[in-house]
Each structure stands twice: as C-alpha cells, then as structure tokens.
Design goal:
The complex is a heterodimer of chains A (about 270) and B (about 130). Chain A has 10 helices and 8 strands. By secondary structure, chain A is an alpha/beta fold. Chain A has a 6-stranded mixed β-sheet. Chain A is elongated and about 70 Å long. Chain B is mainly α. In chain B, a hairpin with a 2-residue loop joins strand 1 and strand 2. Classes of the chains: A alpha/beta (about 270), B mainly alpha (about 130). The structure holds FE2/S2 (inorganic) cluster.
C-alpha cells in the first residue's frame, strides 16, 4: 500500500550533477485511522546541505502536516531524532541527504521498539531500563554542604568520561539484535551508563547496580555483536563498557569465592 | 488509547546486516575450536595404546589422519581457528581499557601485544616440538 506523492516524481539526475529533488519513502502508521503501517513516498527539494531531518520538516511544513516525528536541537545533542535511514539507526539531524544519493531514502522509526505513530517509537521500556540500572551517582560517602564538593583528579575523570557522552538517542538499541530478539535485555545505553557511574571514583553504588548489571538480563545477556558501538553517534562505545562490566563481574565473583570475608559481605 | 505497532525480527535476522553475518561467522568458529578440542581428547585416548606392540589401534589411528577427510577437517579447523583468534584479539581492547595517567593506551597497542604474545608462544611451541 503506497499512496502517491503529492509532488511529481523526480527525473533521474545526470551522473555527477546534483538532482533537483530526492524521494523519501517514509514509514507511516496512523493507529487511529489505519490498521497497519504503510510507506509513503514524498519528493522533496534536494539541497547539498540538507539532512534527512530537514527533508522531514519540509514534508511537515509543505506536504503533509500530519507526519509525526521527534526532534529538538538539530545539532546532535538532544538525542530525540534517532530513526532508521536506509536500514541503519542514525541521528537524522546528522544524516546528510548527499550521502544517500540518488535515493530513494527510506526513513523508518527506530527498529526493535513499538511504534506509537509514524516515526515515533514508544520509549517507555528504555526509561525503565535506565531506572533499573540506577544511572545516577550514588555517593560513596554522604557529605554535608559545608564539607565542600567531591573532588576528583583528571585521571579519575578519564576513567569514565567517554561514557558520559551518551545522549539517550537509543540508536544502540536499534542496532542491537540481542535487544531486538529479547527486550528483557537491559541493553547497551543503560549498561554503559551504569558502568559510567561504577567507574566514577565518587560513586559507591556498584553493589546496588550489580543486581541488574550482573544479572542474566544485564551484561551477561550481551553476545558482543558490537553494533551498538558502531551505531553510536557520540563514540560512547557501549560494547566496550559492557565487556568491562563482564570482566569486573568475574573479578568480583572470584574474590567472593576465594576470600571468605568477602563472600559473607556479598551474601549479607 | 491507540495500539502500538510491534515489528518482530525476521527468523533469518542475522542475514539482514553484514556486521551480523560477520558476528555469526565469528560465533561459528567456536564450534570448530570445540570440535578440535574433542579431537585432541580422542588423540590422547588413542595415544595410550601407542606403546603396546600387540595393539594396532594407534597405527590405525595415525593412518586415518592422513586420509583426505582428515586433511580437509584439519584445513578447515586451521582456517577457523585463525579467524577465531584474530577476531577475538581485535576485540580485546573493548574488555581491556588501559590508561597511562589520563591518556588511554591506544587500541592498536593492546591488539599488537596480543598478536606479539601469540607469535612468541607459537615460536616456543615450535621450538619444543621441532627443536
Ligand atoms: S535533533 Fe537533537 S540530536 Fe538530532
């Protein structure tokens, strides 16, 4: 089921020259009026400096105002514009049309998530995962305000800084086949952010987080496909964080096994 | 409340992306490594009889090893074991993030160290077996 484009189809562009227009095949799902999703073709002007998000905004402004999608910053910071472009999870505000010539460009909502409408996914599961992994600082020693700030050396900061760059865009979840096959998996971003706090010298929440991070649904569910790190637009490397979590979990397990004092504490 | 649309993954999901096909191949190499471990156990079992002049078990086994099937098996295992080793060594820096002060140790150094250790160990084994 494809509805025809409101604009005439683009003529094929001569090799080397920029085409005047480009076709977008957009995933449409309107649960209030239609039973199943379909793809709709839109022909939009081609501009060398346009990203996929610009094309979607052009559609919404000029061709079909009912098209629903999320975005905010248009500069790769807010993490709300993640979608599948030609089958790959990307930030549409950073995906230039010129990299998809001659088109058509297929735009779909992030895969592995339920679709609420058009390009909008239901991210409730992701929010729960972030809560479950306790992705916030749990201070090692509580301090009163007059005691001053928690101090940290640049070397201590370097241990986790890379993992702070996550913008919660969920591209890594769409890249991960493990999450796609079994959504009980905590998933790349939540595990990486849990690890981010575990690596923070000011944090004392490792044992608390281990309940989820070291569970069957946590790091041990990961089969190390590595696509999360390839898809991450911010270079966070969730796959690396997860493998480090496996190493740490193993070390803790061996310590509990071999050092009796620790076992009592771990069980207590 | 309108219903969310669920998109299940296709049964042959791993064929749909190149990186997933490479991943499956990497996982498959483990089966070959396991098969060779089983073969080595069998070899040990047979070797127990090598000293017994009345038994033909060992000589028969050695003869089997030179059959085309055995050569094909060993060739396939060698290729898969090399792939297994190389892919895991390349992946090693993910689990082993080292720092020199504030600076992360470059991944190629971690990978290079793995290959160097492998080469060294291979030389040692070659020296023990051939020397
Ligand atoms: S619109 Fe904010 S990251 Fe793309």
């Amino acid at each position: 089921m494809e509805s025809s484009s409101p604009v005439a189809a683009a003529a094929p562009a001569p090799a080397g020259a920029a085409p005047p227009t480009i076709v977008l095949e957009v995933f449409r799902y309107l649960p209030d009026s239609e039973d199943a999703p379909r793809y709709e073709r839109f022909t939009v002007p081609y501009r060398h400096d346009w990203v996929v998000l610009d094309a979607l905004n052009h559609i919404k402004d000029r061709l079909d105002e009912s098209l629903a999608f999320r975005w905010s910053c248009r500069m790769g910071v807010c993490g709300s514009c993640g979608m599948m472009v030609n089958g790959a999870p990307v930030l549409t505000c950073g995906a230039f049309l010129r990299d998809y010539l001659p088109g058509p460009v297929r735009v779909e909502p992030l895969t592995h998530f339920p679709v609420s409408r058009d390009l909008i996914i239901n991210m409730e599961d992701f929010i729960h995962k972030m809560e479950a992994a306790r992705t916030w600082l749990i201070p090692k020693e509580p301090r009163r305000l007059e005691e001053g700030e928690y101090r940290q050396t640049p070397a201590q900061l370097a241990q986790y800084k890379q993992f702070t760059l996550c913008i919660n865009c969920m591209c890594c979840y769409a890249a991960c086949p493990v999450y796609g096959l079994d959504s009980t998996f905590v998933g790349p971003a939540a595990l990486a952010l849990g690890q981010r706090y575990n690596l923070d010298s000011r944090d004392g929440g490792q044992a608390e987080r281990a309940e989820v991070l070291q569970s069957d649904h946590g790091v041990w569910h990961c089969t190390f496909v590595g696509d999360c790190s390839r898809a991450c637009p911010k270079g966070v490397d969730p796959a690396g964080a997860i493998q480090m979590g496996k190493v740490q979990g193993t070390v803790e397990y061996m310590k509990a096994l071999l050092l009796p004092g620790r076992r009592a504490r771990a069980q207590g | 409340m309108a219903k969310d649309w669920i998109r299940p993954m296709p049964r042959a999901w791993w064929l749909t992306r190149r990186t997933w096909r490479v991943f499956m191949l990497r996982e498959l190499t483990s089966a070959f490594v396991a098969a060779y471990a089983a073969f080595l156990l069998l070899l040990l079992l047979r070797a127990r009889e090598a000293g017994d002049p009345a038994s033909t078990v060992w000589t028969g086994f050695v003869e089997c090893l030179s059959s085309p099937w055995s050569l094909a098996f060993h060739g396939a295992v060698l290729a898969m074991a090399l792939l297994h080793t190389a892919t895991w060594f390349v992946a090693a820096p993910k689990a082993l993030r080292l720092f020199r002060g504030e600076e992360p140790v470059p991944e190629r150094i971690v990978v290079g160290a793995h290959f160097a250790a492998w080469f060294g160990a291979s030389l040692l084994v070659a020296w023990l077996v051939l020397g």
